Write a sequence for this structure.
């Protein structure tokens, strides 16, 4: 096996290291199981995925606040040349995601989008506005050649720090990126929309702009993760909500120091309890579905509450 000589020996090493770390930080001894693990190389990162049979085992390996897995990563980082990233996933959740992916690939094939040939990638315009969009980029690149697009409607939608981080991340990946400003939101616009869901009232009004941009660039596919449905054919352009079709763990956005929050969304949640509850409900569903770690989910929820 690549990176290790003996799978069972490495598995035993993980068991012993986790037990030792839990004891060192004062956690009680607990039994836990690991079904399997795998390595994935991504640029300068080595991703180690650990699969557990139940979520209790997963929690034992992660530890409160991620302390155990954090220490485990530090120790394993000395063992490999690459930067080590560890992800722990419930095996049932993993299988469910694979089934979801296969179902979505078939769904798109029936719509005329063939993603089965990994050597032939379609061109696609990909909207990048927040961490949800960036978190999908590595998976999108497996199937498409992305031309990324962001909308700058003012700092309430795209703060300077977010724009700089997006530009830096895409430059590091050598992905072409354009920023459009079809209009700028003024104080009256912001006040009017601050009690509404900006994903629906702002982002979705930009669909004609995105479709027009795609047509001008000779591209027939748009990936738009804020779309209210998972797929639509608009003026001959396929518009996909890739995050809905291919949900991934939110914490896969590991190359950024912190998430790219939309100030208008946070403001809307604080001003409208219905939007707040809807966003919290969405996070809770993703936690139970295995797409967001509980600790990450609690951080997301606190953004909407505070």
């Amino acid at each position: 096996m690549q990176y290790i000589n003996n799978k069972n020996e490495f598995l035993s090493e993980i068991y012993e290291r986790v037990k030792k770390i839990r004891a060192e930080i004062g956690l009680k001894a607990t039994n836990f199981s690991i079904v399997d693990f795998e390595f994935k190389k991504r640029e300068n990162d080595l991703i180690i995925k650990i699969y557990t049979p139940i979520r209790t085992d997963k929690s034992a390996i992660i530890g409160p606040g991620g302390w155990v897995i954090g220490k485990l990563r530090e120790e394993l980082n000395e063992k490999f040349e690459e930067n080590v990233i560890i992800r722990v996933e419930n095996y049932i959740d993993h299988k469910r995601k694979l089934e979801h992916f296969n179902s979505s690939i078939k769904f798109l094939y029936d719509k005329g989008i063939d993603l089965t040939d990994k050597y032939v990638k379609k061109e696609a315009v990909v909207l990048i506005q927040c961490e949800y969009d960036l978190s999908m980029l590595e998976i999108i690149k497996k199937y498409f050649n992305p031309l990324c697009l962001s909308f700058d409607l003012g700092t309430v939608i795209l703060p300077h720090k977010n724009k700089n981080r997006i530009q830096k991340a895409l430059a590091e990946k050598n992905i072409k990126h354009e920023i459009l400003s079809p209009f700028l939101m003024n104080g009256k616009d912001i006040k009017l929309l601050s009690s509404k869901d900006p994903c629906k009232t702002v982002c979705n009004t930009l669909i004609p702009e995105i479709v027009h941009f795609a047509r001008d660039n000779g591209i027939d596919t748009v990936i738009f993760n804020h779309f209210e449905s998972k797929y639509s054919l608009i003026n001959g352009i396929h518009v996909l909500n890739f995050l809905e079709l291919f949900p991934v763990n939110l914490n896969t956005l590991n190359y950024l120091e912190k998430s790219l929050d939309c100030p208008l969304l946070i403001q809307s949640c604080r001003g409208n309890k219905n939007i707040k509850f809807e966003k919290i409900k969405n996070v809770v569903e993703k936690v139970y579905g295995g797409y967001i770690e509980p600790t990450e989910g609690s951080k997301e929820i606190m953004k909407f509450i505070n």
In short: The radius of gyration is 21 Å.
